[in-house]
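Q: What structure does this chain adopt?
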Amino acid sequence: MTPSEPPATGRADARRNREKLITAARTAFATADAMVALETIARDAGVGIGTLYRHFPTRGALVEAVYAAELDEVATSAPALLAELPPELALRAWMDRYVAFVAAKRGMIDTLRAGIASGTISTPHTRKRLNAAIATILAAGVRTGSLRADVDADDVTAMLLGVFLSTAATGTPDRIDALLTLVVDAVKA
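A:
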């Protein structure tokens, strides 16, 4: 078991404490401009600092667990979106969820960068999971005739990353919405 994986078995109170810590950390990392003290996260979760360190021996382990939990929510949301929306709208809704996922990394960004650099957070694994979600939506769109059959999920992921990189480089995050609309238009049949 890695720090980002929940215990498969164990005491129910330990599992609850772990989830409370992840929830408190998610909130803290999403709203903080600077490094949040782990003591603050433990207090907000209603547990002691020792409990935090039993579950997450390092700040990086806690960040990795929060990142994995949030990525799970984004990556697994495609079927639910498709159950509610036509594929082209589900794709846009999924992209909006991904934008929120990326935006929520303010207080985690330095630790995430270090985790990616050290190999504890696998970007190829992340990209594979994003591609799988996009591929699910694209396949549904091909079946309904609303999305192009010649579009590869990795190409859509590349376009998404291009949107983030270009808006970050130019300091124009207000352009994300318009650019995502263009991405969806590019894959419509």
